[in-house]
Structures are given as structure tokens and as C-alpha cells.
Amino acid sequence: MDAQLKGWKLAVERLWSAPAFDHRQAALLAAEIARESNEPSLQQRAAQALPSLRAACVKSAGRQAKNIAQRRFGVLRDCLHALDAPRFGKRRSADELPTPDERHRRMLGLPFGRRLYGPEINQAYKQAAKKVHPDAGGDPRAFVELSAARDALMKRL
């Protein structure tokens, strides 16, 4: 994350954690983010929060207007935090997914990119089976998958 985003994040956190929310400073910050941000989602959230924040700066603004402005600023804050948050469950593209052969080799602990031989596959299977066999406290499903991986690699020989 670049320095400008870090600065905005810090300023947002200062405003958010202050005992009294400063709508004028929040409006200035939202205007700056809407003007200078390269991230479209952040720019959009800042532009959406700006009218509410400006309305809350007026002396005659009621409690409801100030609450709405603070909620809109909270959406901007959430968007700013989401930019550098880890994305769990993000799907990979089809070219990033391992092929079945790669997946089978990984399960058996075999090297990629070279030809395999029958005894090598069987030896790797025996080593891996010691860890996942149901009699050794392993998972029966994992053992079946391991056996299927060995069978698939043996067929390719």
C-alpha cells in the first residue's frame, strides 16, 4: 500500500476514534480522497459520503443528519480497510489451478517436471500411506485419495 493510502487510513482512524466526531475534517478528508484516489471503489465511497458530511457541518444540522454522515464515513473507512485486507476464498483462474497430475504428485511427495517410474511411485505411496492409513490413526478418505493418486500415476506409465 502506498504512502498516500497509509496517510488516509491513519487520518480516518484518528477521526473515527476521536471522542467527538469532527464532520468538517471528515468532509475535507473525503473530498481529498474523492479527488486524488486511483481506486474506483474508494473514490465512489468518498463521493457518496461527501454530501452527507457537508450537510452535517451546517450549524442547523440535526442529530439524524450527523448520524447519517457518520455512517457514510464508516462505509468509506471500511472500503479503505478492505483495500489491504487479505482476500480469503478468492478463486483462482483456470490457468493457476494444478493439473490432476500435479495434484497427484504433490499428494505423494514426488517431484514435478520429470518422468516417473513404477518403483519410485510405489515407494512414495508406501511412505505417504504410513501417515494417512486408518490403522495408523489417519483419515480413511485421505487414504482412498492417496490410493487413487497412485493408481492414476501408474496408469500414465
Structure in words:
With 157 residues, the protein is mainly alpha-helical. It has 2 domains: 3-82, no CATH class; 100-155, Helix Hairpins (Orthogonal Bundle). It is 68% helix and 0% strand. It has 7 helices and no strands. The protein has helices spanning 3-17, 23-36, 40-57, 63-82, 100-108, 118-132, 140-155. Helix 1 (3-17) runs antiparallel to helix 4 (63-82), helix 2 runs antiparallel to helix 3 and helix 6 (118-132) runs antiparallel to helix 7 (140-155).
Topology:
Elements: H1 3-17, H2 23-36, H3 40-57, H4 63-82, H5 100-108, H6 118-132, H7 140-155
Helix pairs in contact: 1-2, 1-4, 2-3, 3-4, 5-7, 6-7
In short:
The protein is an all-alpha fold and 157 residues long. It has seven helices and no strands.
Structural class: mainly alpha
Residue-averaged pLDDT, rounded? 87
Spatial extent as radius of gyration: 28 Å
Query: What is the number of helices?
Result: 7
* Total DSSP E strands: 0
Give the end-to-end Cα distance, rounded to a whole number of Å: 48 Å
Give unreliable regions as ranges.
Answer: none
> Portion of residues in helices?
55-70%
How is the main sheet built? none
Order of helices and strands: HHHHHHH
**What overall geometry do the principal axes of the alpha carbons give?**
elongated
Q: What percent of residues are in strands?
A: under 5%
Number of domains: 2
